[in-house]
Every structure is written in C-alpha cells, then in structure tokens.
Amino acid sequence: MSALRPNPPMAMLAELTHRCPLACPYCSNPLELERKERELTTDEWKDIFSQAAEMGVLHVHFSGGEPASRRDLEEMVAHARDVGLYTNLITSGIGLNKRRLDALNECGLDHVQLSLQGVDSEMADWVGGYKGGFDRKMQVAEWIGEIGFPLTLNAVMHKKNFDRLDETIAIALDMGARRLEVATVQFHGWAAKNRAALMPTREQAKQARLTVNAARERLEGVLVIDYVPADHHSDYPKPCMGGWASTGINVAPDGAVLPCHAAHTIKSLTFDKAHEKPLKEIWYDSDAFNAFRGFDWMQEPCRSCELKTKDFGGCRCQAMAIAGDAAATDPVCIKSPLHGELVRQAEADAEADADLVYRVMPT
Amino acid sequence: MSVELKDGDRPVILRGVRTHFDKVRNVWLLLAPERALKLDDVGRAILDEVDGTRTFGEITAILAEKYDAPVDRISGDARTYLSGLMARCMVEAR
Ligand code: SF4
Ligand code: SF4
C-alpha cells in the first residue's frame, strides 16, 4: 500500500441494534445477529459520535435493525447533533410514536429515512413479516409530515415489487418525501438466502432504469431519486463504497468498526471495537481498513485495467462471496473469469421462484 | 417540472439543508440528506442572503450593492446557482 494517508471519513453508519420488529428477507444485517446484551451502552455510543465529529465525519446515520428499539435513541441523537453531526434516522417507523417523534424533533434530528416494504398492506406486511406494519408506517409518515421532518423514502426493489415502481414513486410523493431511494436488493446478508425469491429479471432491471429516468425528468425540483441498479445484470461493477475504507465507517451493535456493513464476511480480517481503541487509529492504521485501500492489493485483471481508478475493482464482499477471495475482481465485471457463471446463476434465480426466508433473531 | 426562479419569488433553504464549517477539511459545506456540497465564496455569499423572507430581486440587489457589481451579472450567477439547488430539492421558491 502506498503511504498516502487516506482522507477522513465523511459518513458513519451507526448500527445501534440488530433488534427489529420486522423480518425483511433482504435485511443487510449479518446472519448472526447480536443480542441486546452485547449492544454498546449509551455512553459508549456518545463517545463514538464525539470522536467521529472530531475526525471529520459529517453525516451520522442512526440505523439498525430498528434504531427506535433503543430507548436511548433520543439522547444519542441530541448528543450527535450537539457535537455538530448531521443526524439521519433510518427507520421502518415501527417503534416510533408521536411523542418520540416530537422528542426527536426537540433533539434537533435533521432528517428521517423511512423504509417501505411494499406499496399496500398486503405486500408490505408480507415482505416485512409483520402484520399491521404498513398501516402503522403510514401513520408514522403522517406525523413526520406534521412535524415537518425532511423525509427520504427508501424502497428496496426486487422481483416481487419491481413492477410496482410507479406506485412506489406515487407513495413517496403522497408522503411529501423530497428524496426517494430506489435500491435494487443487494445479495449480501439475509438476501443471499433469498436469491430465487428476490432476484429481478433482466427485463425488470431494464424497465426500472427507464421508469427512474422518466420520473427524474418529470419530478425535477420535487423529488430527488437515487437509484441503485441491479448489478448482477450489469457488465461492470459498482464503485462499492467509493473504494474500500475511503468514505464511510460502520459501527456494529457490539462496537465492531467496519468499512461497510458486509465486511464481516471477510473472515481473514479482524475488526477492532470502537470502545476498545480510538476510532482515528482504527480508520487510519488498522490492518482491516488498510487491506484494500489504494491499488497495490489488486490482482489481474484489475491491476492493469484503466477503470480501476473509477470502480476500485468493485465490491470486496461480493468477490469474497462468489470468488472466495476478497482480493479478486468483482465477478460482476465482464473481465472476471467468473462473470459468465454469475450471469447464468442470476438468470436462473430470476426465472425460479421460492418462498421468502425471513430474518430471525437468535433465540 | 420547472425550477424557474422569478425576481418576485422568495427562495427558501429547505429544512434538512444547512451550511456547516468543516474544521477538519477547512471548508464551508452545504449539508443535505446524503450530500455535502462544497461552498465556494460565491455560493456562500448568495446563500447568506437567502433568509426565506427576501425575494430573489431583493437578494440580487443586496449582492450587487455589497460586491459593487452589475445587477445583471449577479442576477445571472445567482439564478443559475439557486435553480441548481432547487433542482436538487435543497432550495424552494415560494
Ligand atoms: S431491513 Fe427490515 S428487518 Fe432489517 S432492520 Fe430494516 S426493517 Fe428491520
Ligand atoms: S477489471 Fe477490475 S478495475 Fe477493470 S473494470 Fe473490471 S472490476 Fe473494474
């Protein structure tokens, strides 16, 4: 690795807890979910936010699981705001009520990102595995609007709902969201167990692109749409996280600090704990964060490819999952020897079907 | 959709969008959901006058006076800048 010092991180994903009333089959949490007893304390989190602000983090995303499962959420938001961070709450809405939202407003919460499991109660309650979840969410969205929180709606898109993208956009507008994330499911975490149930078809991916482009044009100045395309139907990989450990920092419920939420799948790496080591040291000096920075770790075909400065060889966790080597070329890339197999498998999964495998907490 | 900004419109910086001085990088930023835009002196000067009550015409008059520049040029620059932020849902004209 060249001795270039990395830039400070821009954003922190704070996974306060893995607990969640929902059971989405594409949840990005790891298969081995942490129990409540292993979660960091309020004070440990507050200290992490102070360190983050100090080292240059701008946005902190309160996430989970369901962050509202933590009764001390308000206190942590207030603290993060006090130390100068832009605070974003990523929530399913379940676990929030008007009183808690008012309190979060008092604490200075900057923004709310609400997840959508489906466009009606039948779809949403089925995908989220939680009866009554959709109606509850709609109620929460109304309170969010009353308080005036700026709102992003996040919709994970997959085989079962891609054909209802137009309705998804309509719901975002109804809720008064200013931003919509149309995020095609990424096959890490629980989603990897649901490939046959969730893999979109090539045709769906193509249509989604057209729908998004048309909506962006029609809704300029009203709704910003961020689109995460289906990378299994692409020829080149996404520039995952803008390059390993380059912009974002993740803290898991037990304090493990990761460059992205799937990095724990790379078993050869050891991740330090935020309550045991200064965040700064972890970011700049830990082996795990330095493992895939720069370009020296690359193998062929990435090593001599001119696109490496644009896509950084794609996603390390996907290389790990499919090639069995975290330093391999992301198999999404047409230059990867595994690309043909990846496409064949994606197409087989797109044609197939299966029941949803829900996320479950350990008993 | 149009992101037109007329002289009589009142531009407002929307809730969830705020300026922030970044001590670590030593720059002014405009923070918004999932975005951090670097603010140069021009951008900052314009946004400093956007208080939600002034019309665009009033803003450009103030800037022209303050920076001793022709109102036409100021108005052109400020309109491009603010309508860019309107297209990104960070500023709204009321
Ligand atoms: S994806 Fe679903 S199950 Fe996972 S944390 Fe979010 S709401 Fe909960
Ligand atoms: S070979 Fe590597 S660097 Fe080149 S396009 Fe493919 S993934 Fe990107």
Describe the global form of chain A: globular
Low-confidence regions of chain A: none
Largest interface: A-B, 26 and 21 residues
Beta-strand percentage range of chain B: 15-25%
Largest sheet of chain B: 3 strands, antiparallel
Strand order of the largest sheet of chain B: 2-3-4
Structural category of chain B is: alpha+beta
User: Distance between termini of chain A?
Assistant: 43 Å
Helical residue percent band of chain A: 25-40%
Mean pLDDT score of chain B, rounded? 95
Oligomer: heterodimer
What order do the helices and strands of chain A follow? EHEHEHEHHEHEHHEEEHHHHH
Secondary structure: helix percent of chain B: 25-40%
Pattern of helices and strands of chain B = EEEEHHHE
Write up this protein.
The complex is a heterodimer of chains A (363) and B (94). By secondary structure, chain A is of the alpha/beta class. Chain A has helices at 42-55, 73-82, 98-107, 121-128, 133-147, 165-175, 195-198, 202-218, 279-285, 287-290, 308-311, 316-323, 339-351, and strands at residues 11-15, 59-63, 86-91, 111-116, 151-157, 179-184, 224-228, 248-251, 257-258. Chain A has a 9-stranded mixed sheet, covered by helices on one side. The longest helix of chain A has 17 residues, at 202-218. The radius of gyration of chain A is 20 Å and the shape is globular. The mean pLDDT of chain A is 95. Chain B is α+β, with helices and mostly antiparallel strands. Chain B contains 3 helices and 5 strands, in the order E-E-E-E-H-H-H-E. Chain B has helices spanning 41-49, 56-66, 71-87; strands spanning 11-13, 18-22, 27-32, 35-39, 91-93. In chain B, the strands form 2 sheets. A 3-stranded antiparallel sheet of chain B has the order 2-3-4. In chain B, a hairpin with a 4-residue loop joins strand 2 (18-22) and strand 3 (27-32). The radius of gyration of chain B is 13 Å and the shape is globular. The mean pLDDT of chain B is 95. The A-B interface holds A 8, 10, 55-56, 58-59, 84, 86, 88, 110-111, 113, 148-150, 152, 178-179, 218-224, 226 and B 1-3, 14-18, 20, 22, 24-25, 29, 31, 33-34, 36, 86-89. The structure holds iron/sulfur cluster (2 copies). Residues 236-237, 301-302, 305, 307-308, 311, 313-314, 329-330, 333, 335 of chain A line the site of one iron/sulfur cluster. One iron/sulfur cluster binds at residues 20, 22-24, 27, 29, 64-66, 92, 115, 359 of chain A.
